[in-house]
Write the structure tokens for this entry.
Amino acid sequence: MGKKNYEITNNIRTLRFFAGEMTQQQLAEKIGASRQTIIAIEAGKYSPSLDLAFRIADAFERSIGEVFEYKIIKE
């Protein structure tokens, strides 16, 4: 039961690049989070709350589906 059968990926690094090389710190300040949180989300080590996910999407003026992707992993 402990094994996840899904994966949440994101395009935050790419979106930061296309937003004028926005730094992790700049994004964190814009959405009211810590730089460590942004690092963990980008690395796939932390899944943000729905509220935080929407704030990230809003920061890039994108839909949440353009920033995050939910994939079901077949066993």
About this structure: The radius of gyration is 13 Å. The chain has five helices and two strands. The beta strands are 6-10, 68-72. The helical segments are 12-18, 24-31, 35-42, 50-59, 64-67.
